[in-house]
Predict the 3D structure of the following.
Amino acid sequence: MSKKTRHRMYAFAPYNISPIQQGIQSWHASAELSVDQRAATPYHDWVTNEKTIVILNGGTSMEWNGNEQGTMQDNLDFVSIYFDHFGAFYEPDLNNMLSGVAFLAPSEVWDVEVPPVDFVKSRELGPEETVSSWGDYGLSVWLKSQRLA
């Protein structure tokens, strides 16, 4: 009998807003995820059975002349490639800044032990190389290397 996949919500919020705003912006992004019909079943499973949301330090949020972007945008780019279910929120009261990126991570990614030596290896490789080399385990290493907000 196979183990049922569980989901956990993770969200990035900018480092430079208050802790309560980090929670609010993360929740806004998770609400955006909830309207994605592709995410209906995993989201319903998460909201019914899990309800855990882990808020991560997303760093900076900026878009400048289309040439540079902040780490919030980098996180959104990464999440949109490697996770099926995600949502982003742009706060109107903050000049439409990207203020929340939420995603559902399956238990195959977050419920994995990662030895410290693999964190060191992943820093040498970078996030994309880690995932392309190690697959889902690389996602586990990436996720567990993120800092809490």
Observations:
- The chain has a mean pLDDT of 91.
